[in-house]
Amino acid sequence: MNRRDALRKTGLLAGATMAAPSLLALLQSCQAEPRVDWQPEFLTEDEAVFVSSFVDTLLPRTDTPGALDVKADMFMDKIWAHTADEAGQAAVRADIAKFNTDCKEQHGKPFAELSEGDRMKVLTAAESTSPTFNGGVWGTAVGKQEPVGFYRSLKSMAIWAYSTSEKVGTEVLNYDPIPGDYIGCLPLEEVGNKWSL
């Protein structure tokens, strides 16, 4: 090997050694960057990231599937795309923007970029300050229902999307599409999970 080749290879090795930590940091930052792996119909990319992080924080994967496992965020996007009128869609966009603005003011970042602990603080605060749904009898609300606000509406929609998914209905809840005997009086401890069907 001549001296010129040796110097060139030494220079490349030194450059690679100095660049490696920077490249590794760049790769890690790309992996940590929140993004969605589906094409929203109604939501913008940033709004979809917010909804995905919201439902994942609200209903994370444990020993049962999480909200992202059953695509609750995609379901919610489709509901807004196909059932909300222009005024309703504009209200959703404005509410998401306000929620993120409040997060930036209180925690310095939009909701999707917060740590898990800070996300839980945001949801806990919203839970304690948001109006609630009236109690109901046989599926009908008692009294006049006042508006419950964005947080409670979004939470309700996320739970609805999650609990009505096929995966939860067949794998988490009890499921028996061809029921057997009718047992009118069964001890509660024998029932187990709620039934989806």
Instruction: Tell me the strand order in the biggest sheet.
Output: 1-2
User: How many helices in DSSP terms?
Assistant: 8
The assembly state of the depicted protein chains is single chain
Tertiary shape? globular
SSE string, helix = H, strand = E?
HHHHHEEHHH
Low-confidence stretches: 22-33
- What portion of residues is helical? 55-70%
Average pLDDT level: 81
Percent of residues in beta strands: under 5%
Give the C-alpha Rg: 24 Å
Give a topology summary:
Layout: H1 3-32, H2 45-58, H3 72-83, H4 86-107, H5 116-129, E1 136-137, E2 140-141, H6 149-163, H7 166-172, H8 188-191
Task: Please explain how this structure is put together.
By secondary structure, this protein is an all-alpha fold. It has a domain at 35-127 and 151-167. The protein has eight helices and two strands; from the N terminus they run αααααββααα. It has helices spanning 3-32, 45-58, 72-83, 86-107, 116-129, 149-163, 166-172, 188-191; strands at residues 136-137, 140-141. Strands 1-2 form a two-stranded antiparallel ribbon. The longest helix is centred in the first third of the chain and has 30 residues, at 3-32. It is globular, with a radius of gyration of 24 Å. Residues 22-33 have low confidence and may be disordered.
